[in-house]
Specification:
The complex is a heterodimer of chains A (about 300) and B (about 350). In chain A, helix 4 packs across helix 9 (about 155-165) and helix 9 (about 155-165) runs antiparallel to helix 13 (about 230-235). Chain A has about 300 residues and is mainly alpha-helical. In chain A, about 75% of the residues lie in helices and about 0% in strands. Chain A has helices at about 10-15, 25-55, 60-70, 70-105, 110-115, 120, 125-135, 140-145, 155-165, 170-180, 185-190, 195-225, 230-235, 245-255, 260-290. Chain B is α+β, with helices and mostly antiparallel strands and about 350 residues long. In chain B, the strands form four sheets. Chain B has a six-stranded mixed β-sheet with strand order 6-7-8-3-9-10, with helices on both faces. A five-stranded antiparallel β-sheet of chain B has the order 13-17-14-15-16, with no helix packed on it. A four-stranded antiparallel β-sheet of chain B has the order 2-1-4-5, covered by helices on one side. In chain B, a hairpin with a 4-residue loop joins strand 18 (about 325-330) and strand 19 (about 335-340). Classes of the chains: A mainly alpha (about 300), B alpha+beta (about 350).
Chain lengths: ~300, ~350
């Protein structure tokens, strides 16, 4: 769930055909593979396992109590709701931005591309702080919002805004290179056959980008549910009301309820597994539908 | 569809890719837009299709100005260079696309697609996806797809470029025959003069965004109107001082000449038909060209190139021969002139 979007590299196929004269000796191969596995084990597997070990340390009862606690359930609900709002928003934004960037030429295109990467570049804390500065009680729109009794900061809208901000590059970043490589020819063909813009999008563009889009959505969703920094700043940590899952984990931990904290954390880890499986499935499906025509 | 293109101009930034191009195409004609790569042919084709908009000038279909019509409403079929088939659709769905867009009935669509599959010889492939087809088959699908909605004008962008040479020749004839059968006005773009000559009723030669010449292939070959056309079509070589040759003293002053080897005869002294019109020269080199000899002959300081039949007695380098230049093509930067050998038709032969 890091802030980078991998492309559809297919390293497995390339490695299989690597001829001997540019390949490394066996001991170098083993050493490199061993290093990678060791590192992976130390940095990823051991900590992840420890989450489950810690969560179940005091028995299954404590575990289930922790995750069925009303505050925990409310955090699950809020997390799902936030993702349910921000992922579709970012999907629409991502498709629109990728479409605009790859199909039209206009002034400021490079600027737009750079801005899409902005959330990856700034610290999530800043991303949250921006909204506090805008909508907080001392912020630009603070007095106006207070007058009309609209709550943004320390409420759902703030959390959604921060999440949208942090996750908006995922879909766009995934689609832009894909759509750039596909060009506009199929759309042009559709146009000469009489198709209008709407039909062109649904019948030609969307089917061509669907796997990339799905991949972007999965990554976006994973990040939306797991985001901590930005949401932490705008949420206000009101238990049972503005706590998302990651925030709830931290609160429990700070209150020395380690088992409960790890129990809730294990939910997030499970979510990560679901994401990985979904991602793997999309990649597998995508590989099954080659976009390069066969050689004669 | 009767097509008029009037003073069409198009710029991409500071580059003018098409300048003041005007031509007319009669209904039912098969026309080739020919020229070197990067000369603006495809841009002209795309402007006719409505995929590109001209900076100035008009495009008129059957008396109606279509400049502002989007491609959807122009009644055209377009075959793209790489076919641009919809990769996620079967052959059937690809061909049916234009009909589905027009909200035709299912039954009608099935009939029309079946008809086109028959016409293009794609029967049995309708369930395949584009990536399961060969290059030639893909081209046929693109062709059938473009024809399905019964357009009035068919536009093809380098239709054979992506196909290997062997299949290309076959497909060329197939396409010509197919277009003849459908009877549709057609414009295709190519950089291959042989292809243009073989397929097109009429050729429009485009070079650096300008129309160089329009006419039947044989006309263009025989009467090139600009130096570019003369050198682009067929084989040719340049003569710096054509006035030094017998029979060509009267041409444009200071002009250079473009000569086609097939308009030059080389013979042993006893063979030549017009002895007083022929120059004496020395054979410099002889090349075997598969079905003929190519002979290079020095006449004074100039070198001419000619073909010689394998039937005739071969000439050797160093041998003295007679050279008869039948026709050459003069240009001096402003004016151009086609010149026949004046001595060939000398009204007062010396022996009278």
């Amino acid at each position: 769930m890091a802030g980078s979007v991998p492309t559809y590299a297919r390293p497995a196929d390339a490695a299989a055909e690597r001829p001997r004269h540019i390949n490394e000796p066996v001991y170098v191969q083993r050493l490199l593979i061993g290093l990678a596995l060791l590192f992976l084990g130390l940095v990823l597997v051991v900590p992840l396992l420890s989450v489950f070990v810690q969560a179940l340390k005091k028995g299954a009862d404590v575990y289930f109590q922790a995750i069925t606690d009303p505050d925990a359930l409310s955090a699950v609900r809020l997390t799902l709701l936030t993702a349910a709002i921000s992922v579709p928003l970012n999907t629409i934004f991502g498709v629109a931005a990728a479409w605009a960037i790859t199909k039209f030429s206009f002034r400021g295109k490079q600027v737009l591309i750079s801005f899409i990467d902005l959330p990856f570049a700034v610290s999530p804390v800043i991303s949250g702080l921006i909204f506090v500065l805008l909508f907080g009680s001392k912020g630009w729109f603070g007095p106006f919002l207070a007058e009309h009794d609209i709550k943004i900061i320390f409420a759902l809208p703030g959390i959604v805004l921060a999440t949208v901000f942090v996750t908006f590059p995922f879909v766009a970043r995934e689609l832009i290179p894909l759509m750039q490589s596909q060009g506009t020819q199929e759309e042009e063909a559709a146009a000469t056959l009489g198709a209008g813009g709407w039909r062109m999008f649904w019948k030609v563009t969307l089917p061509n980008i669907k796997w990339g889009l799905l991949y972007g959505i999965i990554l976006c969703n994973a990040r939306a549910m797991g985001e901590f920094g930005a949401v932490s700043v705008v949420s206000g940590h009101i238990r049972g009301s503005t706590n998302t899952l990651p925030l709830h984990v931290e609160i429990l931990y700070n209150e020395y309820q380690f088992s409960a904290s790890f129990a809730v954390a294990s939910l997030l880890v499970l979510l990560a597994f679901v994401t990985l499986i979904a991602k793997g499935w999309v990649e597998w499906k995508h590989r099954k539908t080659p976009d390069e025509p066969l050689k004669e | 569809m009767h097509i008029v293109v009037d003073n069409l101009t198009k710029r991409f930034g500071s580059l003018t890719v098409c300048r003041d191009v005007s031509f007319t195409i009669d209904k039912g004609r098969l026309v080739g837009l020919l020229g070197p790569s990067g000369g603006g042919k495809t841009t002209i084709l795309r402007m006719i299709a409505g995929l590109e908009f001209p900076d100035s000038g008009d495009i008129v279909f059957d008396g109606k100005r279509v400049n502002d019509l989007p491609p959807q409403e122009r009644g055209i079929g377009f075959v793209f260079q790489n076919y641009a088939l919809f990769k996620h659709m079967t052959v059937f769905d690809n061909i049916a696309f234009g009909l589905t867009v027009r909200k035709k009935q299912k039954k009608q669509i099935r009939e029309r697609v079946a008809e086109l599959l028959e016409l293009t010889g794609l029967n049995g492939l309708e369930r395949r996806y584009p990536h399961q087809l060969s290059g030639g088959q893909r081209q046929r699908v693109a062709f059938a797809r473009a024809l399905a909605p019964e357009p009035q004008l068919l536009l093809l962008d380098e239709p054979f470029a992506a196909i290997d040479a062997k299949v290309r020749r076959e497909l060329r004839l197939w396409l010509k025959e197919m277009i003849r059968r459908v009877g549709i006005t057609t414009i295709f773009v190519t950089h291959d003069q042989e292809e243009a000559a073989e397929v097109a009723d009429e050729i429009i030669l485009i070079h650096q965004g300008k129309l160089e010449q329009k006419g039947e292939p044989i006309q263009i070959y025989q009467n090139p109107q600009t130096p570019f056309v003369a050198t682009f079509i067929g084989e040719s070589f340049l003569l710096e001082q054509p006035w030094q040759l017998k029979g060509f003293e009267e041409g444009l002053k200071g002009a250079k000449a473009i000569v086609r080897p097939e308009f030059v005869e080389v013979g042993k002294p006893h063979e030549t038909l017009h002895p007083h019109a022929a120059e004496k020269g020395v054979v410099r080199s002889v090349y075997f060209r598969g079905n003929k000899w190519q002979v290079e002959v020095e006449i004074g300081s100039q070198t001419v190139s000619a073909y010689r039949s394998l039937e005739k007695e071969p000439v050797q380098p160093g041998e003295e021969v007679h050279v008869l230049v039948h026709r050459l093509y003069l240009f001096n930067g402003e004016q151009t002139q086609m010149l026949e050998n004046g001595m060939k038709f000398d009204p007062l032969p010396v022996h009278i």
